Design the sequence.
């Protein structure tokens, strides 16, 4: 008669202990496998995170030390050269100054019949404003008629004199933006900046106000110029050009460097007269041009031939 029990003999106490040990061993092995898998996954995640952070840091470092962009087109000398014919003022086109390159001095008209006028100006400088307001119209007439050329060098000496807005730098940058995108509008834009010149130590004009002046000057490529102004695209170039003006010899003159603004040269001779008397500056232009003409037309005295 069957009672449903097993016919297998009951495990001894030693067999039970051995089975328990085997089971514990298997559990330990399984736990070690899980720990190894988790370690691999954690290490992999850490590596990925480290690589991601390294890539981000590398990008930030690259962006912080990337080389400055080139300067504006048509200002290879750090200034823009304006000439005129038949009542129209046009800019002399030059390629953009590459990053880290040295400026290329303009070759002046040495015919002795043209006044080569060169100005170094800061758009916040009140003395520059006086000179420009006094002489802008007569200079325009001389350039339009072909009697003179005008080379304007915007520099930023008073960047820290505008209540923290860096107006000198922003205005010089805006001038570079116009030279780069609409060079034939430069004379009018330059004149408007001085007609609307803010007082020194004031915040100066906003970018919106500067862009409005560019539009009033009739610039082409207005959208590109507005973006250039907002981005301060030529900030580094303005800083470098200012440093060059203050530390290097002034081309086509005897000046060792620019000591202040305005610095005005006519055929290499520095004007040091009144900033508010137009007649005095016009007289200086005529004198400097006459001297240049005399030098260009003078001939050497013949050497006497000894008697036999």
Sequence:
């Amino acid at each position: 008669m069957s009672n449903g029990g097993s016919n297998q003999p009951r495990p001894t106490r030693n067999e039970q202990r051995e089975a328990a040990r085997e089971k514990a061993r298997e559990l330990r092995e399984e736990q070690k496998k899980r720990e190894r898998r988790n370690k691999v996954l954690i290490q992999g995640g850490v590596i990925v995170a480290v690589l991601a952070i390294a890539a981000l840091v590398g990008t930030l470092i690259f962006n912080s030390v990337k080389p400055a962009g080139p300067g504006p087109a048509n200002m290879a000398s750090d200034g823009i050269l304006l000439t005129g014919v038949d009542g129209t003022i046009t800019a002399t086109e030059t390629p953009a100054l590459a990053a880290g390159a040295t400026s290329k001095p303009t070759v002046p008209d040495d015919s002795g019949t043209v006044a080569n006028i060169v100005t170094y100006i800061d758009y916040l400088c009140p003395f520059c404003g006086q000179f420009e307001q006094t002489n802008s119209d007569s200079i325009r007439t001389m350039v339009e008629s072909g009697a003179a050329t005008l080379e304007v060098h915007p520099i930023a000496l008073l960047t820290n004199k505008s209540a923290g807005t860096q107006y000198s730098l922003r205005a010089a940058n805006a001038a570079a933006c116009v030279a780069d995108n609409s060079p034939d509008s430069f004379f009018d834009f330059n004149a408007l900046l001085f007609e609307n010149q803010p007082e020194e130590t004031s915040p100066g004009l906003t970018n919106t106000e500067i862009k409005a002046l560019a539009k009033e000057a009739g610039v082409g490529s207005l959208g590109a110029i507005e973006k250039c102004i907002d981005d301060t695209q030529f900030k580094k170039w303005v800083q470098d050009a200012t440093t060059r003006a203050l530390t290097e010899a002034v081309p086509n003159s005897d000046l060792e460097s620019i000591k202040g603004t305005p610095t005005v040269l006519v055929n290499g001779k520095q004007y040091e007269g009144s900033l508010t008397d137009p007649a005095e500056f016009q007289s200086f232009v005529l004198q400097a041009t006459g001297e240049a003409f005399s030098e260009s037309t003078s001939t050497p005295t013949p050497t006497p031939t000894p008697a036999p």
Remarks:
- DSSP finds eight helices and six strands in the chain.
- Helices lie at 13-65, 126-145, 167-181, 186-195, 207-216, 222-231, 235-247, 278-297.
- Confidence is low (pLDDT under 50) at residues 1-6, 57-67, 299-308.
- The CA atoms of residues 123 and 168 lie 6 Å apart.
